[in-house]
Amino acid sequence: MPTSGSSTGTAVTTGPIWGSTKRYEPVPGHPDIRFPVRRVNLSNGEHFDLYDTSGVYTDEREAIDVETGLAKTRDAWARPEPIDGAATQLVWARAGIITPEMAYIAAREGLAPELVRDEVARGRAVIPANHKHPESEPMIIGRAFAVKINANIGNSAVTSSVAEEVEKMVWAARWGADTLMDLSTGKDIHLTREWILRNAPIPVGTVPIYQALEKVNGDPTLLTWEIYRDTVIEQCEQGVDYMTVHAGVLLRYVPLTAKRVTGIVSRGGSIMAAWCLAHHEESFLYTHFVELCEILRRYDVTFSLGDGLRPGSIADANDEAQFAELRTLGELTKIAKSYGVQVMIEGPGHVPMHKIVENVRLEEDLCEEAPFYTLGPLATDIAPAYDHITSAIGAAMIAQAGTAMLCYVTPKEHLGLPNRDDVKVGVITYKIAAHAADLAKAHPRAQERDDAVSRARFDFRWNDQFALSLDPDTARSFHDETLPAEPAKTAHFCSMCGPKFCSMRISADVRTYALENGLTTPEAIEAGMSAKSAQFVALGSSVYLPAATL
Ligand code: IRN
Ligand code: FE2
User: Fold this and answer.
1) Of 185, 266, 275, 309, best ligand 1 pocket probe by most atoms within 8 Å of the beta carbon
2) In the predicted model, is pLDDT for residue 7 greater than 50?
3) Are residue 361 and residue 462 in the same domain, yes or no?
4) 375 and 226 in one domain?
């Protein structure tokens, strides 16, 4: 229920997610630190705790004043001293220190703090947590952990207001976005980002070259290292947790895209390619990379090394332009890590299924297993308006192969700016892809949730099934479309098969029959099945019966 959150009437969505209550559990070894979970209290007396990204917005409270911002919780946490000029989770992990952020993440993921520290120390995981974003609830991106999803929002010159962007952030986090990227390009970029950051319980990423381009009125040839650097510092100071830097788009790679079907589709990539060609000089992002490292490590801002030459079509997948850039990203990864800066690597784009795994293997080899963060990829180009689905197919596959974070794609991809509903559909779709990969990778906690949903389904505990699901509101409303009455919430059937042909009910009957008749289950199934068969034939062997007979 949207509520008015401030005197200016800024509305953000608040209130619990249907069927669950928010709790804050203690982090072992840190009596003053608590991490969030959403508890589903089941009708059979059990409960199930879900990983939660939604922030205080899903607490039991009326309204949140977005002008005040969230509590600056992490400011009170002990922060180790910098090491050789770097104040990052990476250098602390290497020094054997388990920071409060690492302990928090371990509790949140149900894993050992030492595993968190070790994966960060090896550069196989990153914790995007700028010191200047103390409102964020720490999370980790890495192949040993649950697969994460990122939601992109951002106004463009033509649409959206600041308040709408804050609402989209809250909304994306509510449905499970682990991180958010603010890709605003219109006016009020600084202000929009300030509002988002001060209210964001999740890490926030940006692409600083977009704002730098605004500062030169949209003419990429007028960009300079100094303008870019000052933009990066401005954003570090505001609290941005990770930044996309397209430093792998080198001058000599640009001609490699000439024969492509879709050329350069990355916004940042095309800006840098235009600059390189106009000046006939190497990219300033590449030539000043060390200076960037020296800035980012003071704040603990994580690099997200951009894929400016990612394929934008099935035809261009895995081509030389793409992989040449990836090799350069590998070189930059080593430099960043030597300065103590955390790094992840952005990946494609559009890739057919049989070419997906190669992307992950190459990234691992070239980039020392730095977390891979991919945009889908779309497994086919033929379905505009359904690209959340075309891309979720690729996303599930690439995540199973080891990708650590998936950048969502909404139904509006290639067509327009996503609205609130598109954001939700994108987030839920990507939660499905990420969770399917967690199951395939045997993440310790993943299957517990499936089992809980399946048991609720088999027991006809409808409300439990809704509450445990990714989108209780939609599941419930679909069910209620045909069976809205309250007794239907415990009924042993739904309107899909009707009471007589519900397979779940028949199976349950078979079990009861076996128990009552002292039969083992296979015998009971046979006996039960022949009884059903007789009943089926007696009803005229018709699966679809008139309502009166049900
Ligand atoms: C993720 C992986 N590859 C690209 N992305 C996201 O795309 C990136 O994190 C950012 O949100 C957006 C950047 O787009 P351009 O500037 O590369 O088009
Ligand atoms: Fe695309």
Assistant:
1) 266
2) no
3) no
4) yes
Q: Which of 265, 375, 398, 414 to mutate to test the pocket of ligand 1 (most atoms within 8 A of CB)?
A: 375
User: Do 212 and 324 share a domain, yes or no?
Assistant: yes
Whether residue 273 has its Cβ less than 6 Å from ligand 1:
no
Q: Which ligand is nearest to the CA of 407?
A: 1
* pLDDT for 550 beyond 50: no
Cα(392)–Cα(389) distance, integer angstroms: 5
Distance in Å, CA 498 to ligand 2 centroid? 42
Residues in the chain: 550
Residue 137 belongs to domain spanning: 120-444
pTM: 0.92
Looking at the structure, tell me whether residues 437 and 453 fall in a common domain.
Answer: no
Starting from the CA of residue 344, give the closest ligand: 1
What does the radius of gyration of the chain's CA atoms come to, in whole angstroms?
A: 25
Helices (H), 339-408: 356-366, 387-400
- Distance from the alpha carbon of residue 194 to the mean position of ligand 1, in angstroms: 21
Contact between 175 and 471 (Cβ < 8 Å): yes
Question: 235 CB less than 6 Å from ligand 1?
Answer: no
Residues 233 and 258 in one domain: yes
Task: Measure the CA–CA gap between 331 and 248, rounded to whole angstroms.
Answer: 9
Q: How far is the CA of 151 from the centre of ligand 2 (A)?
A: 16
pLDDT digits (tens, 9 = 90+) for 269-290: 999 999 999 999 999 999 999 9
Q: Which residues sit opposite 141 in a β-bridge?
A: 126
CA distance 300 to 240: 10
Residue ranges of the annotated binding site for substrate are 152, 181, 210, 246, 266-268, 307-310, 346, 373
Residue having the nearest C-alpha atom to atom 5 of ligand 1: 375
- Give per-residue pLDDT as tens, 10-53: 679 999 999 999 999 999 999 999 999 999 999 999 999 999 99
Q: Are 239 and 199 in contact (CB under 8 A)?
A: no
- Residue pair 49/107 in contact by the 8 Å Cβ criterion: no
Q: Is the peptide bond before 377 cis (omega within 30 degrees of 0)?
A: yes
